[in-house]
Amino acid sequence: MDQISEHRDWRGVSILERQHYMANSMHVNHPDFVLAANEIRRRSLRCENENAGAGILVLAPSGAGKTHLCRFLKSRWPDEVGDAITRVPVVKFDIPPSPSDRSMGRAMLAAMGDPTWNVGTAIELDSRIRTLLPKIGTKVILVDNVHDVPDRRGVKGIQLIGNWIRNLIESSKRTVVLLGTSAAMPIVYSNSQLRRRTVKQLHIDYFYTNTDRHLALFTRFLRHLYAALPLANPASDLDESLVKEIHYATFGIPDYIFQLFIEAVALAVASGREHLCQEDFANAFPLIHKDALALGLNPFLPTGPKRPLTQEYEPFFNWFDKSNPPLRSPRGLHP
Which of 131, 125, 139, 205 has the alpha carbon at shortest distance from 176? Predict the structure, then answer.
C-alpha cells in the first residue's frame, strides 16, 4: 500500500486501500504545518551542530494537525531496525495519565524501545534516557498532549513536570518539541528557565473564510487536497460556494476536512466514479456528523444552512472550551 502514490492511476484499487492511504500516507501542505516542520528540522540541525538542547512549543487547537505533524516527522526520519539496535531519530510519547517524574521517564523510555522501561527510580530512568539517546541516534523528541498536565496536576505538579521537561532539554542536547492546545501555556510559564528554553512558539491553526485572504488560502489548500486524492480523475470544479460549504461542514478543522473527503472518496468509488461531485459530499456529511441529518443541517443540500454550524445542538457548538481554547495567532480570526 505504501508504494501507491497520488500520481498512480487508482483504477481498480479497493476502497479500503484508498481510505488507508488517505488516513496514513497522504500529505497535503497546510501553511502553518510547513512552517512548523521546517523550523523543527532547522532547530534539530542547530542543536546537533552546537551540542545544545532547545525547546519548541507547537500550539494547535483540537483536530488542527498535531498528530499529523508527529506522523509526518516520523515518516521523514523513520526508525532504522538493525541487528543489534534500532535507531529512533524521532522519539514521540504522550503525557501519561498521572504525570510525574517517574511516569514521564517511563513513557519516554517505552517510546525509545527500552525493554525495561518500567523498571527503576525516576533518577535511574533519567540516567538511562541520557545513555540511550545517542545510541539510538535520536534527533528530535516529541512530547504530545502537554495541555493534559494542568487538568491532571495542581500548581506544584505543573512546576514539577515543567522542571522535568527543562532538565530533558538540557541533558538530552536535542530538540524537544512540546505539542498541545494553548491550555499548555501554564507548563512553560510556570518555570522561567523552561520559558527561556522554549522561546520558539509555533501555531497550527484552523482554516477560515471570513476574509478574502483566508478564503484564498483555504481554496488553495483544497485544490492541493483534490490533486492528492486517490482517484484516477480527481479534478473538480471547486467553485466558491462548494469551498464555503466544505468549511461550514468542517469548521475549517483539518481532521474533519480529511474525514469528509475520506468518506466522499469511498462513496464516489462505490458509485463507479473516479471523481467527486456534490452528491458525494452531501452523503458523506451525515457519516461524520451522525445527528446532523435529523436536524436538517447538511450544508451541501439546497435546504441546508449556509453558515458555520456553531449554534446550540449543532456539531461545533461551544467547540472552544477551556481544554481547547482558541489560538491568539496572527491568523486566529475565528469564524
Answer: 139
